[in-house]
C-alpha cells in the first residue's frame, strides 16, 4: 500500500513481541539514521505526529512493509507476484529482489524529501464514480488531473485546491477530499522527477526474481524497466495505474492477495478490480485492531483454508515458547443420572438399552444444596 496508510504507533504491537519483525525494523532504523530519519521515534516515540510529513511518511511505510514481508517469510509465506501503489512500488521492488535493503530505504528517503520540497497548497480528492465519467468530467476543470486509476469506480484527482473544491461541488460526482499537504501525481510534482530518476540511476538494480507488475506503466516490469531511472521518476508525476497492474496479477493466476501495510486501503479496491468471489484477500495489519490478532488471524485463515503451508517452527522461533503434549489416555465415558423428583421407574424408559437401564440402578449423584425455585427439566446430564 502507499501513502495514507501510515499512522503513529503503526506496528508497535508486532515490534514488541515478534523478534523477526523487530530485528528488521531495527536494521531499517540503523540504515536511515545517517539521513536524519529517527525511524523508531517517528513510529513509536514522541514524534509520531511528524508522520504526516511526506519526507517521513514514505520511509516509515517502506520500513514497516519490509518488516512485514520478512515476518511472513519467516513463517513460510512468500510472495509469488507483487504490485505496489505509488511509494508501495519501492517496497514491491525490494520484495521482488530488485533493490537491496539499504538502497530501497535510501530511495524512500529521497523520494519523500523531494516530494515534500515541491510547491504545497494543492489538494486531492477520491471520486467514487465510473472511471470513464470521471475522466470526461476532469477535462472541464483546467489544472485538474487524474492522480490514480484505482478501480472501475474509484479514481483520485489532484490539482490546485480551488480547482479540486470546484470539481467536488459542481461535477455532480460523489467526492471525498483527502487530507494531504501536496497535489501528488500532478504537475506540482514535476520538480521531483529528474532528481529522483538520478537517485535511482546511482543504485544497483537487479532483474525481478518474481513477477512484478508496474503501477506506473500497467505492464510487467523486466530487467530494463526496473533499471530505468526515468520510469521511476515519472512515477511521481504520472497517475498510478493500480487497477491495470492488479489486473495483470489476477490474469497471471494470483488467487491469494496479502495487503502488506499498516492498514488495509487497497483490499476494497482490489475486489472492485477482481470481483471473483473465489479470490482471497488478507490484511496484515489494521489500525483499529491488535497487531497480533490481525496478522495471526490472517495466517490462521491462510492455513486453515488450505491456501498454503505455514512454518510453525518459524512462528514460535525466538519467543521462549514451550511445546507440550496433551494426555494420551482416553477419558472415562460414564453417564450419571440426576433424579428430578419423579418416580425413577418413569425415568428408565423401556426403549433404552439394557446398559442404560442397568446404570439407573447404581447409586445416584445428587447436587447439593438444591437451588430454590429452580427445577431440573432435563432427564439426564452427561
TrEMBL record:
Keywords on this record? Acyltransferase, Phosphopantetheine, Phosphoprotein, Transferase
Q: SUPFAM superfamilies, per this entry? A: FabD/lysophospholipase-like, Probable ACP-binding domain of malonyl-CoA ACP transacylase
Using the record for this protein, list the coiled-coil segments as residue ranges, or answer none.
none
Residues of the Malonyl-CoA:ACP transacylase (MAT) domain: 1-289
Q: Which GO terms describe its molecular function?
A: acyltransferase activity
- Classification via Pfam families: Acyl_transf_1
Which SMART domains does the protein's record reference? Answer: PKS_AT
Q: What is this protein called?
A: Acyltransferase domain-containing protein
